[in-house]
Specification:
Layout (H helix, E strand, L loop, with lengths): L40 H34 L1 H18 L5 H15 L2 H26 L3 H7 L7 H30 L4 H24 L2 H24 L13 H35 L4 H19 L2 H15 L1 H38 L5 H17 L2 H9 L4 H52 L13 H19 L10 H10 L1 H11 L2 H9 L2
Helix pairs in contact: 1-2, 1-7, 1-10, 1-11, 2-6, 2-9, 3-4, 3-6, 3-11, 4-6, 6-8, 7-8, 9-15, 10-12, 10-13, 11-12, 11-14, 12-13, 12-14, 12-16, 12-17, 12-18, 13-15, 14-15, 16-17, 16-18
């Protein structure tokens, strides 16, 4: 990055290539190019992504089996309450002051500088801040629970159960906020396996708990107690290993200057995450009020698309640690080339994944749920395209956050939310859930273009537009082939393959050759083998 701060923009220090004032300088520089003490970027990325993906794929497979069972076991009315409560929880989870993501950003820098004392001091300070904030913010939320139940008529079918579920989720959110600090410590050290084990074990508890809830008729209270057991186990798995990377002599508080700098950055992260979450959950909240009769069709399709979206997002944590540690070790200028290389890999991967996955999702979700409507499939396929528009600039966003330029992510989320709400309110009346998801896709595309333009105009070391890395011919070839193969597989569902999870899996497997063909065209299978063999 060119030394110097753009006029009128105080976010950057005088020279971004040097450590931030108040941050200790690394005592021992690490080898730059794959020395024996520093694993290759590709190896870290693949290893981290593998563990992240493992913790997601196993729950995803379980959910494929559980979702129809839960819908039919609880009934559409109780399942609707379940969805609304989860949306409220997800929205409340963003009220963390931006501390969680900001702590991760600082910890990866400290990890690059090998400064465990500074890391401990930051975790200690933020632990106290989070503890106080949880008591104040989440305590006040209890007063709004009756209003939430009154606002959504569906919840009034089991007011006491809905109130108990919402109250439990609020308490668990506080626990999760504190636990995220220790999880960030592990992520900064590129130790992704612990969090993955916590997710896998927690989902096992979740599965057993929901089955017992349905079979016993425990309803929403049974779901609440399932969540309690799930999060208690996750906390026991994550917190103790994190202490190995902290130091007793670091217990204390960060200085005032760093505290101010941290919360200027965290405030923008908080605003960005809050707006992003409102945008993600707006469909559920608006449809639950305006078109509640379509909620049972929208929810499963939307959830499935979100689950597929999180598959490539498993690489975000490793990419953040790679870029953060690179800046901490070598400075911005040297890390920029690494960022450009990561973006090319990222864009090629997510584009092919969505191109092959969207057509298969349409046919597969319909066969999976067999609710007598194609709406869930339409929702899933359109939202997958919308998610592609939000995934493409992900490396750009990570780069901006590592450089403490959180304002870029904040501004694009403002654009997304404004466009999305305006378009949703205009389209949901005449077109129902289809109008809502089309509004989401259009808003993501507009926000993507805005972010890329602003980065190019305002950042001294911009990452090129991700659209330049899209392999257009391979993308459309994969899209067309996936559509043909998924349609053909769908003709077997019902007469040959049973409806339900097997129908979904059949359509998904049918689209796999489209993804392989895409990789051959966009990356090259020989090149892909070289990447996988790299050490």
């Amino acid at each position: 990055m060119t030394a110097g701060t753009p006029p009128g923009d105080p976010e950057l220090p005088p020279d971004e290539s040097r450590p931030t004032p108040g941050e200790p300088v690394a005592a021992e520089p690490l080898p730059v190019d794959g020395g024996e003490h520093r694993p290759s970027v590709t190896r870290v990325l693949l290893k981290g992504t593998f563990w992240q993906a493992l913790s997601q794929f196993a729950p995803l497979i379980i959910n494929l089996v559980l979702t129809p069972y839960i819908i039919h076991g609880l009934g559409l009315e109780m399942y609707t309450i379940f969805l609304i409560a989860n949306s409220v929880q997800a929205l409340m989870g963003t009220f963390n002051g931006g501390i969680g993501p900001s702590v991760t950003r600082y910890l990866v820098i400290y990890a690059g500088q090998r400064d465990q004392v500074a890391a401990t001091r930051l975790v200690t300070t933020m632990g106290v801040v989070v503890g106080v904030g949880v008591l104040v913010v989440f305590g006040a939320f209890y007063a709004f629970i009756p209003a939430i139940i009154d606002f959504y008529p569906a919840m009034q079918q089991d007011e006491s159960g809905a109130a108990f579920l919402l109250s439990t989720q609020v308490i668990l959110l506080g626990v999760l906020q504190l636990r995220s600090l220790f999880q960030s410590v592990l992520f900064a050290q590129q130790q992704f396996v612990v969090a993955s084990v916590a997710v896998l074990m927690g989902h096992l508890v979740y599965t057993v708990g929901l089955v017992l809830t349905v079979e016993s008729g425990a309803g929403l209270r049974g779901i609440a107690w399932t969540f309690v057991c799930q999060q208690a186990l996750g906390t026991l798995i994550i917190v103790p290993p994190a202490f190995r990377h902290l130091r007793r002599k670091g217990i204390g508080f960060i200085d005032r200057a760093l505290f101010h700098e941290f919360f200027v950055y965290a405030g923008k992260v908080q605003g960005s995450s809050l707006l992003g979450m409102i945008g993600q959950q707006a469909d559920t909240l608006i449809i639950g009020k305006v078109r509640p009769e379509q909620m049972g069709f929208f929810g499963p399709g939307s959830t499935f698309a979100q689950q597929l979206r999180t598959v490539p997002l498993n690489a975000v944590g490793p990419m953040e640690t790679i870029l953060g540690r690179a800046v901490g070790e070598r400075g911005t200028a040297d890390a920029l080339e690494e960022c450009r290389r990561l973006q090319r890999i990222w864009v090629r991967g997510v584009t092919g994944f969505i191109a092959a996955g969207a057509p298969a999702a349409y046919f597969g979700v319909i066969a999976w749920l067999h609710l007598g409507s194609n709406l869930p499939g339409i929702v899933a396929s359109i939202l997958l395209v919308a998610h592609l528009f939000s995934l493409l600039p992900r490396v750009q966003i990570i780069w901006c956050l590592v450089l403490r330029r959180a304002g870029f992510d904040l501004s694009q989320n403002i654009v997304f939310l404004v466009v999305k709400l305006a378009a949703t309110l205009a389209l949901i009346g005449p077109f129902g859930v289809v109008g809502a998801v089309l509004a989401t896709a259009g808003a993501q595309l507009v926000a993507n273009a805005f972010l890329t333009h602003r980065i190019r105009a305002r950042l001294d070391t911009p990452v090129p537009s991700p659209w330049r890395d899209v392999h257009v011919p391979a993308t459309f070839l994969a899209l067309g082939l996936s559509l043909a193969l998924a349609w053909g597989a769908n003709q077997l569902v019902g007469p040959v393959v049973p409806l339900g999870p097997l129908g979904l899996i059949t359509c998904g497997l049918a689209a796999a050759p489209a993804f392989v063909l895409y990789l051959h065209q966009a990356v090259g299978l020989g090149r892909l083998r070289d990447i996988l063999r790299q050490r």
